[in-house]
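Support request, please re-run this one:
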Amino acid sequence: MRNKSFTKSRVIFAMLTVAVMVCIFLFSCENAEKSSDTSGFFVNIITNMFSKKLSKLSYAEQSVFLDNISHIVRKTAHFTIYAALGFFSSLTIGQRHIIGSGSFGVIGFCFLYACSDELHQYFIPERACMFSDVVLDTCGGLAGMLISFIFLRNSKNHNVT
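Re-run finished. Output below.
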């Protein structure tokens, strides 16, 4: 019975991994304007929290503040979506040692997908191909994989994986 449950879990986690990959691909298909609009939604939420302080700044200071917030939102999005990729791909593999071929495979997978994602962005109008994003994405994948170990350890007695 455990083996059947184990297989169902792996299939579900594999499907979630593919879903995250599709999301990453679709975000990368956005041109610079659409991508800015997507991150701008979150920038607006953050700036509304600081609106009183922001209104006291000069136009130049406001511009720098908004540029910094936009940069943070974009980089956080990179890290977070790749953390989800690392998390679900790690759960697809299942229980294993933290240092081993399965874990290195997850990190390698996240790295290669990040490379392909950045290469894809190279061909999208006004988007950039940046190795620093590959590094950030891979770190997100590593973080997601590490979080999965907490999940796997806590669910070991509940037959989740």
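Residues 59-93 form the longest helix (35 residues). Residues 46 and 106 are 33 Å apart (CA to CA).
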